[in-house]
């Protein structure tokens, strides 16, 4: 019971935190627009998440996303088509470290290898840095070279390697700390 109450208070605090984030201007590069998602992107993002991971967002994630998708998910779009998305939230550890967690990144397979994931991460890092956060944490499977390569390029460093029994694979816990000199 105590844990449920703690969790509810934590989520309420996170609602206030996400609400307090400022709006961000989109970027355009090579016909692709990078920016935060709108409510009309939600259905397509869920479908893409399902296609790429076989998972759906949890109940609490869905509640938060219905309210704050425009502060939690970065999308890469061509016109109205969602090519990829990058989902951010915090857990208690991130909050203590004044960081944000990259919960998921996915790009349509037909657009892989074109730098879309890297650009979404760059956009998100510039934004969260401008909002005063100190960095981004992430968890990536050892076998996921595409995600690891893009993350390393952005400055993520491995903090811990561990075996995830639920996923039955080795994973890395990584952190990218924003430098004072980053633009
Ligand atoms: C991981 C993923 C998001 C990467 O998206 P992307 O837009 O193709 O990535 P980028 O093009 O920005 O960069 C990927 C980097 O990895 C490299 N790369 C791509 N596929 C690779 C592979 N199979 N093995 C090794 N490197 C690979 C690319 O060449 C690029 O590096 P480079 O710029 O030095 O050439 C995409 O592959 C994806 O959606 N995968 C399925 C979902 C997933 O696994 N998500 C990650 C969960 S943590």
What can you tell me about this protein's structure?
With 183 residues, the protein is an alpha+beta fold. The protein has a single domain, classed as 3-Layer(aba) Sandwich (Aminopeptidase), CATH 3.40.630. It is 40% helix and 31% strand. It has an eight-stranded mixed sheet with strand order 1-2-3-4-5-6-8-7, with helices on both faces. A hairpin with a 2-residue loop joins β3 and β4. The mean pLDDT is 95. Bound molecules: coenzyme A. The site of coenzyme A (COA) has 19 residues, from β5, α5 and α6. This is GNAT family N-acetyltransferase. InterPro entries: Acyl_CoA_acyltransferase, GNAT_dom.
Rg of Cα set: 16 Å
Strand-residue proportion: 25-35%
Can you tell me the CATH topology? Aminopeptidase
**Total strand segments:** 8
User: What would CATH call the architecture?
Assistant: 3-Layer(aba) Sandwich
**Parts with pLDDT < 50 across at least 5 consecutive residues:** none
Query: How does the helix and strand content classify structurally?
Result: alpha+beta
Bound molecules: coenzyme A
- Structure annotation, total helices: 6
Q: Could you give the order of strands across the largest sheet?
A: 1-2-3-4-5-6-8-7
Order of helices and strands: HEEHHEEHEHEHEE
Q: Name the CATH class.
A: Alpha Beta
Bin the helical content.
Answer: 40-55%
Ends: how far apart? 45 Å
Mean pLDDT: 95
Shape: globular
How many independent structural domains? 1
CATH homologous superfamily?
Answer: Gcn5-related N-acetyltransferase (GNAT)
